[in-house]
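Chapter review: from sequence to fold.
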Amino acid sequence: MEGEQLKMKVIRNTLRQEALNLIPLYTSLRKMNLSMDDIDKQLAPKTQKCAKKFVRHKTMQLKLEFTYIGQEYNQLGRQINEEERNNINIDEQKYLQYSIIELEYKILEKALEIKKVQNRNVPDTPIETNLIEHGLFSAGSHSKKVMRTKYYTGVVQQTRNGFRRLTYENSAGVFLGTFDARVLAGLTKLYFEKGMQQQFSFNFNELAKEMDTIPSGKEYMELYESLVNISRTQIIMEEYYLPGNKVRQRTSMYHPIDTLTFVLREGEEVGRERAATVSFHNLIHQSLQQGNFLTMNVVLFNDFLKPTTKILYVNMINSAAQNITSYSVETLTQHLNLQTANRSLLVSNLLEAFEELKNMDVINSYDIVYGQRKSVQFINFVPGDLLQIQSQTLQGKFDLILTHDERT
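The token string follows.
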């Protein structure tokens, strides 16, 4: 909670500074007796430049601040209008304050417009479909301390009965989460861009670019750790599907990343390498070769506030392709690997994620189906425009194919 409050404070402080930078130009334009439309046109290039500085923040955070500022803007505007009607002498500082808030409002409005456009980018970041259908990535996790206590041997072993049954084992003592999902998706995109060879090499800055993240020392360390965590993960998929096969099959235990070798370059220390060579397991390689992958908009994925929303979004892409618009709460909880025994908290977490998806235009609406004792049993949803895109073609890259088997 403190982290979120700090982020909101950063947004507001930055917004205030940007508005103060624009206020001299704004006030001079007002003195020229121009219409508000003309003033907005004059300010547009600078407003756009200011707005771009907020793109790195989450849409939901910007929307919340936009609501606060809108309320403040309207309240002060009504107060000034009331005082003018009553011929009350208004302090110039109040007019100045009103102008500053107005500029903040317009900057944030433009920032949200930019974010909305970016979030409607054509999905071009692939993830192998079986990994999504079997629930490899967790939306929930424990602290490292709790994980060490719960899995004292250092090895996490778990069976997940989500949409498809998965046996999960990780010798690094972790659940793969949202960051790992981004890393594996980024690797898969590099796989295609480097010629679809089972083994390929890359620099960390290449991977960071595919993940739509800003390279930094901290980010590189997280990439390093994530690659290790993924490579130490073994799974059994109970219903593995390869296009062309009539039936699904149970796999043997295997590592999705079959081999991982860090490349030590000049000037680097062991453990701080910034390049690597990986090979996907043959099951993943074959599946990708056959076009069995779904694609997500990584910008939109990064923009979601909640981990549950991120993983749910990826699963919804696959569900929408199969015309699935209803989830059992029990199955969804298992599939997302939400880590709490309190059912009330689980349901609240899921409903908050659905609400965020609605606010972000991924779904148009959702409704709840209750069972006995008013417990939530199912959540139905209506796909929005961002889930309607099932197949697109990227010039010069690869076909975006969302394939699936027909469920009977």
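Two observations follow directly from the output. The longest strand covers residues 363-370. The longest helix spans residues 2-31.
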